[in-house]
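Technical note accompanying the year-one report. For the benefit of new consortium partners, we illustrate the data format agreed upon in the data management plan: each record pairs a sequence with a structure-token string. No post-processing was applied to the example shown here.
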Amino acid sequence: MRYWLFKSEPSEWSWDDQVAKGDAGEEWDGVRNYQARNFMREMKLGDRGFFYHSQKDREIVGIVEVCAEAHPDSTTDDPRWECVDIRAIEPLPKPVNLDRIKADPELAEMILVKNPRLSVQPVREEEWRHICGLGGL
């Protein structure tokens, strides 16, 4: 299993929106960055990801699971763009904000710290475990 981080502006698509989709999940559509798209192409069923509220909140709020591997993005006719489907698994009891992540030496190499604009990114297993601990899991 691999680990990922999915960023969304809560005013566009929030954790609550994701939870409301239930076990069927929802496409992680609209990504128009080649690197983020390529990361989605690497994802496998059952991979886990952090759900991150960007913009104002800037915090990891929940855990999602990949429930459909890469397929054409339904929001465009351009065949270059693909997406995965994700479903909500559980909220973090204590959201972990970006300031906390940046202040933690164990997370200094995390892509979220080094390239915060990337909307879909991998998370190393040790980063995953550390953040889950910070979040109360």
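Partners are asked to follow this layout when depositing records. The radius of gyration is 14 Å.
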